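FW: tagging you since you asked about this chain on Friday. Here's the raw sequence from the shared folder, copied in full. Didn't touch anything.
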Amino acid sequence: MRSYINGRQAVTSDDFIELALGTPLELWLGVEGESAEERAARLDAARDILAEYPGLPDDVSRVAAQVIEANAPELFNVVPLIRRPAGRRPARSGGKGAAA
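HL: got it, structure written out here
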């Protein structure tokens, strides 16, 4: 099954995030090894986008909450740890002492 958002195909989770934000994910998270100049330019662009779309953080939070709610059973599928009955554990051989 293929998923399309505004005529673009979303294949990976990053694709869905990028299409939901309307910007590349790297704009907000940065990239490994970026220079100080690249980082400053990226942050300036992010500030410009937030100034133009002040509701963007709320929209992103709302989408994230909807995804979590829709997938809650899978996300929070927690199984209890199995407790082992208390008992004697076999002694570890430390390599010292006489063989039995």
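FW: The first strand starts at residue 3 and ends at 5.
HL: agreed, and The chain has a mean pLDDT of 78.
FW: great, closing this out.
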